[in-house]
Design a protein that fits this description.
By secondary structure, this protein is of the alpha+beta class. Helices cover 39% and strands 18% of the residues.
Length: 146
């Protein structure tokens, strides 16, 4: 009578093939998630910039914090991005805004550098989004996005 089933060698080969496929796929998946977080961070920063400029057209100054944009009636941005206490987190990035009569600055930094993002972003009243690869708030001297 012949035993039916798999041998230990066959099972080890299948496990080795699955491990090889996972070793190839997982880094690509993590890179795709990181790129998605950065794209969402840039998009949210554009939204904050447009909202701050709209806020100034109605008021005499730019907002002093993201709370001003989220708590306005009607709100300029959603309450996740316009949270009560800065920095506000959304999709792996932390956002902050400071403003005054004639100027504002908004930043987006990865919540965990090199895990949720590798670039920090910055925008001011010019509307140009700038970035840096450093684990710090982006500065005006960093590279503008195209």
């Amino acid at each position: 009578m012949k035993n039916k089933g798999f041998t230990l060698v066959e099972i080890m080969i299948v496990v080795a093939i699955i491990a090889l496929l996972a070793a190839i796929a997982i880094p690509n998946l993590l890179r795709a998630r990181l790129n998605a977080n950065e794209s969402a961070g840039i998009s949210s920063l554009r939204t904050v910039s447009a909202a701050a400029i709209s806020f100034r057209t109605v008021n005499t100054a730019y907002p002093v914090a993201l709370t001003n944009l989220g708590a306005a009636t009607p709100a300029y941005i959603d309450t996740i991005l316009g949270c009560a206490v800065q920095p506000c987190g959304k999709q792996g990035y932390s956002f902050a805004l400071t403003g005054g009569t004639n100027t504002f600055t908004a930043t987006a930094r990865p919540q965990t550098f090199q895990t949720t993002g590798v670039r920090s972003f910055f925008v001011d009243e010019s509307g140009v989004i700038r970035w840096t690869n450093l684990d710090a708030a982006a500065t005006v001297a960093s590279t503008p996005l195209d």
